[in-house]
Amino acid sequence: MIRILLAAALALALAPGLARADSLGDILNANKALVEHASRLTIGPVIDKLAASGDPRTEALLKAWGDKKLGLRKSDGTFVLLTRKGGDYALTLPDGSGDGTAKRSDINILRPNAGVRRLIDGALVEFQLSSPDLKTRTEALSIIDRHPEAGQLKPLEASLKAETDPALRARKERLLRLLTIRFGESTPKRIAAIDSFGADTGLDLRGTLNPLLDSHRVITKAGERPQGNVERQLIPGKTITPEAAYDLLVARGDAPARLTPLARRQALEAHIEGGKVGGVPVAQMSDPEARDRAYAALEKAGKVPGAATRHEVAAAVAGHAYWRVYQEADPAMTTAAKAALAKIAVKVDAMQGLDLLIEALSLASIYFLAAIGLALTFGVMGVINMAHGEFIMMGAYTGYVVQQIVPDYTLSLLIALPLAFAVTFAAGVAMERLVVRHLYKRPLETLLATFGVSIALQQIAKNIFGTQARPLTSPGWLDGAWVLNDVVSISYIRIAIFVLGVVFLGLFLWVMKRTRLGLELRAVTQNPAMAASMGINPDRINMLAFGLGSGIAGIAGVALGLYAKVTSELGQDYIVQSFMTVVVGGVGNIWGTLAGAALIGTLQKGIEWLNPSNTLAAQTYMILFIILFIQVRPRGIIALKGRAAGD
Amino acid sequence: MTFVKKNPSVLWFLVILAVFTLAVTLMSPGTGTGVISTSFVKTLGKTLCLAMVALAMDLVWGYTGILSLGHMAFFAVGGYMIGMWLMYARTEEIVFAALAKSPIPPTPAELHDGIASQIFGVVGSSKMPAIWAFAGSLPAQLALVVLVPAALALAFGWLAFRSRVAGVYLSILTQAMTLALALWLFQNDSGLRGNNGLSGLQNIPGLNHVPQEWLSIWFFWASAAALALAYVLLAWVVSGKFGSVIRAIRDDEQRVRFLGYPVEGYKLFVFALTAVIAGIGGALYYPQAGIINPAELAPIASIYLAVWVAIGGRGRLYGAVMGAVFVSLLSSWFTGGRAPDVPLGFATIHWVDWWQVLLGLAFVLVTLFAPQGLGGLVDLITGRRAPPRHGAPLGPDTGSLQEREAEE
Amino acid sequence: MSSLLEVSGVCVTFDGFRAINNLSFQIGPAELRAVIGPNGAGKTTFMDIVTGKTRPDAGRVLFGEKSISLLRRSEAEIARIGVGRKFQRPTVFEDQSVADNLMTALKAARGPWKVLFWRPGPADHARVLELADQVGLAAHLARKSGELSHGQKQWLEIGMLLAQEPRLLLVDEPAAGMTLAEREQTTAMLVDLAKTRAVVVVEHDMEFVRRLNCKVTVLHEGSVLAEGSIDHVTADPQVVEVYLGR
């Protein structure tokens, strides 16, 4: 009942001049040819008329037509709605009365093409908006979202009051305001709709506002001003290149095309006569001046078309003025849209800043994880472990192998983390005992010997696992991202890595500050000889420190494997950045490593943001920055100062 | 001559190099019997260039104690500089020949554009970058072979040494410099053809009529001559007081400062000099290799350089040459698939796969047990003995060669 | 002005700790001076400041007749101006021969380019021999200095300092680890050296200082506590308190 009333009200609203609408059948019959061979370009008025008929069966008719269930009975050319009934069709006339059945062959089914169906859908929307079915209503909104049209404004507004679903109601309200911006009947209403959004960052709003600011280039005589809503003037040489300005003139047919070097060359080649072109010997043609002379001679003789000279081009360009003119005629609208977009831009920039910060943070936590073990060995023992990257790789491969055996990803991750720690801890201790121990006080040689281990390990990994990347699949609950809004979203893996970084920071601080091992570690760091005389076994501490650093590298490897592909070069990709992190942060201090990771992560993301097309250049600039940074603070951000630094 | 008398290794070295050069000349396909192939002559020529950069590395590391992980970058930069001329001049010939067929002769601008689009088509550009301004001139590019590595080394060295960055920090920093340079070259808009690098360098412009077997032996001779010159130069540099000072810097740079020597100046001098030698080595190497791309600058290449010098024996020039020649030839033998596989029953060792492992482990063993490297063998033969070090290390800072009486 | 080195109002802070606090010090062109003080009094930091290793936060350090400021100059420059320093631990270049060590230290041009083309003349060889003779190493010229005994290394280092021909010599605890006989020899040598140049000896050992028989400066907590003859300062109650504790 309500629907009928509503439809009637709608009909009245849409067709205020109409006292009585034609019946559906009448309309169809009156436009039989148009309907039968419906084309997107011509069918519009018919559909509008149908929609405006006020007949409660309009929806059903339009739906049937769109679904290819409207046909013409061949015998008498009557429009009938079709319902499948066995092999035959049950027929219904547009006025709702049944009309028996018919064989398939007796019916000429109407098959509207995609363009027509879109128009039909558009007309259907107003009915669907008030449909009792939630799904239908949602679909209708999606259609409006995709193809907003002026006619949808009223039905949408009308359907709003009766909407019961709060979420859908909010969506309808938003769509209504968006439609009002586009098609609102008066400028104040449209501007009010724009203002109602404030600094909303929705993509749909920006999609609505941006077309309002579409503009095209317009040429006038110099000194004149074009019609319409002018955006700005384009000044040749400043906001438009003279070449582009001239091309505009050429495109409008106001000036002859310029002669390209290729065209000139071809013209010259076509007129070689007895070793001469226009009286100039061919041998001299390597001189551009000679070519000019030859072409001028040909032009004079009328053999080649005249081409604009540079002076003519300059004069033509100077004789006109160039403008950008808005498609939207009302200056008030463009001003409002501009202001709204500016407001949005500020907010989007802020959001992007936040997004950048989050990305930087997550990159920083990766570097932190990769560098923390390195910082430990470097800080405690003054040893640069070039094989650190390979320990990261070993951790990642451990994770991969565990996944091959334990198919449950969550469980395998839980096994892989401690196992990776154990494997790399053992490898680290082995390397310390076999290699590093014999090279104390020879830091450069340790660097080289551990590098030897590094290339051997890398090649062994290549021999075992092959050169192609191995997947380390993250469990399902780590897939996806935490979406804050259209601008900011963070993938769960990044969050997990961040959490892991924080956990390790906490764990590290706890070990260092609260345990006996930490105390001894710090003692050995500061003064090994003194620590030894206090009964601490520096050999044992060094071994543990090395093992611990390597173990952390292994865990970092599992985390990195989830985030990137596992290859034998995985560690190598991170090793230089890890070194940078340690060096920039300052040796022998976990907070320094943290600061270094934060600086390098932020820096890398920041430079990438400044120059998004070129991540290679970004890395170059970052390294250059670090080299310069070392100039300012040779001992890193957080440096041991004074006598403790041992200089 | 007292110089030769004081440095008998120079004479020995020159004699061995001369004999080797003569032998290769007699066996090469161009000038001799053809027992060895043209490509092997090229390999040997390249090895001599590597020996040259190893000499430079020995001066900077073995003598001055700066473990530079960036000298292969200077080597590659030298290669790029000569490569620019080779590529430009050769493309110029080709473009000129192509345009000569057209009815009217090309203008210089057309020629220039033709060359640019020919060279930079692969990176989707047809403009000649500004850094190619001198590419058409051989003398200018030859000067750049020396000047660019020198300028790079001076700029980097000045920054690094001025702020007293030393030891492992400096090594990491030089590695970062190399990586930065490599990444920069990897971009397409660096003006050096991105990761395509420069290619076709084996074709020498203006020498199209000379077959490769002759070119290869010419380059071999040039490499041998350059190596000989570099050896004599460096032997002379390290034989005098300058040598004393730089070795003193390696062992205790603070003490050298208090003697009034501007340590940073010396380091900078050595760094730049060796960069120039490396650049010249690269300029001779890449025409024999035929192609250069940014992968040649990868930090790992410079670490391998350190490996050669370490295996050969630091602090003696012939050690560096021995290490470079030995390891690089062995490496090409193993990776070239010529080494016989070793069947172990349960598995077969393919040396192509396992050579890196062997090299890595050998390197660890040399560092641990034979810091003298292959040069130590020479000591065994000549009966010379190193001073008893009691296990004390050779190197700068805390690792310097010192026989401490007591810790304070 | 007859003083060779004039330090005035110098302050140095390490991480908030004032190592040197408004220190002033003067020494004439041919004078022997002992600087004593308990641990942490700032003796080594004082030497670091004069030789350019540590930059003070405030104050002046002037050297020579022309009153050249030593602040803002590098260690090498200061050494070339004429300040020599002997470390507590003997630091000689152990990989090189005694002759090379002395030759390296010999007063000559120090720039890399000049040194590259510098070749020793007969006069230089003679000077090296003379120096080696002076420090009793003439018989060991060709030996690697790493093979020398601890005492010989000390002497070699002194020889190197002499070869530098400094106008001011800073000597850090020369007597540490020496036998009685060696101490006496060292004392005699320092007294002898001070006839032609300024010598500052930093020392813990009161006995040794007494033997030097020179003016003594007592440092405490980064500033001068007392100055005068050894008898004068040992009579000072403040000095006694500092040395013997409260």
Automatic annotation (TrEMBL), chain A:
Please state what the protein is called.
Answer: Amino acid/amide ABC transporter membrane protein 1, HAAT family
Family annotation (InterPro entries) = ABC_transp_permease (IPR001851), ABC_UrtB_bac (IPR017779), BCAA_transport_permease (IPR052157)
Q: What is its main location?
A: membrane
Which PANTHER family does the entry link to?
ABC TRANSPORTER PERMEASE PROTEIN (PTHR11795:SF447), BRANCHED-CHAIN AMINO ACID TRANSPORT SYSTEM PERMEASE PROTEIN LIVH (PTHR11795)
* Keyword Cell membrane tagged: yes
Membrane-crossing residues? 366-388, 409-431, 492-512, 543-563, 575-603, 615-632
**Which stretch is the leader sequence?**
1-21
Pfam families in alphabetical order? BPD_transp_2
How does the record classify its membrane topology?
Multi-pass membrane protein
A GO CC term?
A: plasma membrane
Biological process annotations from GO: amino acid transport
The similarity comment for this entry is: Belongs to the binding-protein-dependent transport system permease family. LivHM subfamily.
Keyword annotations for this protein, in alphabetical order, are: Amino-acid transport, Cell membrane, Membrane, Signal, Transmembrane, Transmembrane helix, Transport
The compartments listed are: Cell membrane
What species is this protein from? Allgaiera indica
UniProtKB/TrEMBL annotation, chain B:
Question: Which positions make up the signal peptide?
Answer: none
* Chief localisation class: membrane
CDD domains (UniProt xref): TM_PBP1_LivM_like
- Mind telling me which GO cellular component terms the entry cites? plasma membrane
Tell me what topology the record assigns in the membrane. Multi-pass membrane protein
Is Transit peptide among this UniProt entry's keywords?
no
Q: Where are the transmembrane segments?
A: 69-88, 142-161, 168-186, 217-238, 265-285, 291-310, 317-334, 354-381
* Cell compartment(s), UniProt: Cell membrane
**Which UniProt key words apply to this protein?**
Cell membrane, Membrane, Transmembrane, Transmembrane helix
| Annotated stretches, region: Disordered | 388-408
Entry's Gene Ontology molecular function annotations: branched-chain amino acid transmembrane transporter activity
Q: Which NCBIfam families match?
A: urea_trans_UrtC
What is this protein's name?
Answer: Amino acid/amide ABC transporter membrane protein 2, HAAT family
- Supply the source organism for this entry: Allgaiera indica
From TrEMBL, chain C:
Is this entry keyworded Nucleotide-binding? Answer: yes
Query: Looking at the keywords, is Nucleotide-binding present?
Result: yes
The record's section on Gene3D superfamilies has: P-loop containing nucleotide triphosphate hydrolases (3.40.50.300)
GO cellular component terms, alphabetically, are: plasma membrane
> CDD domains under this entry?
ABC_Mj1267_LivG_branched (cd03219)
One example of the protein's molecular function in GO is:
ATP binding
Keywords for this protein: ATP-binding, Nucleotide-binding, Transport
Q: Where is the ABC transporter domain?
A: 5-246
Name of the protein in question: ABC transporter ATP-binding protein
Q: Which organism is it from?
A: Allgaiera indica
